[in-house]
Design a protein that fits this description.
Elements lengths: L1 H24 L1 H4 L3 H26 L6 H15 L5 H23 L5 H26 L4 E2 L5 H23 L2 H11 L1 H6 L4 H23 L5 E2 L1 H4 L3 H13 L5 H20 L4 H15 L3 H22 L1
Antiparallel strand pairs: 1-2
C-alpha cells in the first residue's frame, strides 16, 4: 500500500512538473508581451538563488561572489555578443567562469566562516575597480554597448538554463557527491576523516554554481543596451539570492525557487511604485524571515501541515 502511494505521488509530481514546463515553454504564444519579460527577470533570480544554494546550502559556506560571476557573464556578452551567437558566448562565459571558480575555490575554500565570506565579497569590490582602471587608462572607453536580442529569444535561453540547472541540482543532491556536501556542512572534520576529499568537493561545486550564474548574466545582458563595471558588478546581486533562498527555505530544492519567484515579482512591482522603499521592505522581510522562519517559507508550511495532520490524527483516535 505504501509503495503504491509513493509511486502515485511520484507520478503526480512528474505530471505536474511536465505541465508547468509545457506552460512555460508556450508562454510567449499565449501571454502578453510584458509577461515573458517579467518571467525572464524571475528566471534570473531563480538561477542565482538555486546556484547559490547548490553550494552554500549544504556546505554552510556563505559565498558572496554571486555578483562577481554574474558581472563576468554580463561582460562576456558585451565582448563576444557582436561576433558570436548567443549559445556560444553563454557556454564560453560559463566555461571561463568554471575555470576561474576552480582557481578561486582552490585558493579560498580552505578558509572558513567569515573569512571566506569577506574574501568572496572582496572579489565583487575588486573586479569592477580593475575594469574601470583598464577601461579609462588603457582601453580608452567607459562602459560598453551590448548587442540587444529579441526578448522571446532571451526568455527561451533563460528557460533552458533554468531547466538544466534544476536537473543538475536534483541529481547532485541525490548522488554520493551531494551526500558528501551534506556531510561537510554537518561536520567537515568528520567528513575528511571518513575519506572525503572535502576541498575537491567544495571547489567543484563552487565552480558548477559559478557556471550557471555566468550563463544567466551573459543571457540577461542582451536585454540591456549599455553596461559598465558598476552596473555589471552590482553588489545587490550577491545579497538578493541569499535573501530569496533564506526566505524560501534551503531544505528543499524548490524552496529557493519559491523565494525567488515571490521576491522577484515584488521587486518588479515595488521598484516601479515605491522605488525609495523597496530595499527597506526587503530588509524588514529578511530580518523577520531569519527571526521567525529559520527554515524558510517551505519549512513553515511543512511545520503547520504536521501540526494540522497531528491534530487530525488525534481527533480520529478519539
Amino acid at each position: 500500500m505504501d509503495i503504491a502511494r509513493v509511486t502515485s505521488k511520484k507520478s503526480f509530481l512528474l505530471g505536474l512538473l511536465g505541465l508547468i514546463l509545457v506552460l512555460l515553454a508556450t508562454l510567449p504564444l499565449y501571454a502578453a508581451g510584458y509577461t515573458p519579460i517579467l518571467m525572464t527577470s524571475i528566471f534570473v533570480y531563480i538561477i542565482l538563488s538555486v546556484s547559490w544554494t547548490l553550494f552554500s546550502g549544504p556546505t554552510g559556506y556563505m559565498s558572496l561572489a554571486t555578483a562577481a560571476f554574474f558581472g563576468i557573464g554580463i561582460y562576456t556578452a558585451a565582448i563576444l555578443g557582436k561576433s558570436v551567437p548567443l549559445p556560444i558566448f553563454i557556454v564560453a562565459g560559463g566555461l571561463a567562469s568554471f575555470i576561474i571558480a576552480l582557481l578561486v575555490g582552490a585558493l579560498t575554500l580552505r578558509l572558513r566562516g567569515i573569512y571566506f565570506a569577506i574574501f568572496t565579497f572582496g572579489l565583487v569590490m575588486l573586479i569592477p575597480q580593475l575594469l574601470v582602471f583598464w577601461e579609462l587608462h588603457i582601453a580608452g572607453i567607459r562602459g560598453r554597448f551590448v548587442t540587444v536580442i529579441h526578448y522571446n529569444t532571451i526568455y527561451y535561453a533563460m528557460l533552458g538554463i533554468f531547466v538544466v540547472l534544476m536537473l543538475a541540482a536534483y541529481f547532485i543532491k541525490r548522488s554520493k557527491f551531494g551526500l558528501a556536501l551534506q556531510s561537510i556542512g554537518e561536520n567537515e572534520e568528520a567528513a575528511a576523516h571518513t575519506g572525503i576529499n572535502v576541498t575537491m568537493v567544495k571547489v567543484i561545486t563552487f565552480a558548477v554554481s559559478a557556471f550557471f550564474i555566468v550563463a544567466a548574466g551573459a543571457t540577461i545582458a542582451t536585454r540591456w543596451t549599455y553596461i559598465d563595471p558598476y552596473i555589471a558588478f552590482n553588489p545587490l546581486f550577491s545579497f538578493m539570492p541569499v535573501l530569496m533562498a533564506i526566505f524560501g527555505g534551503m531544505g528543499q530544492l524548490y524552496g529557493p525557487v519559491i523565494g525567488a519567484v515571490i521576491f522577484a515579482y515584488l521587486q518588479e512591482k515595488l521598484i516601479t511604485q515605491f522605488p525609495e522603499l523597496y530595499m527597506l521592505i526587503f530588509g524588514v522581510v529578511l530580518v523577520a524571515a531569519i527571526l521567525y522562519m529559520p527554515n524558510g517559507l517551505v519549512g513553515l508550511v511543512q511545520k503547520l501541515w504536521k501540526r494540522s495532520s497531528g491534530g487530525q490524527h488525534a481527533n480520529t483516535s478519539r
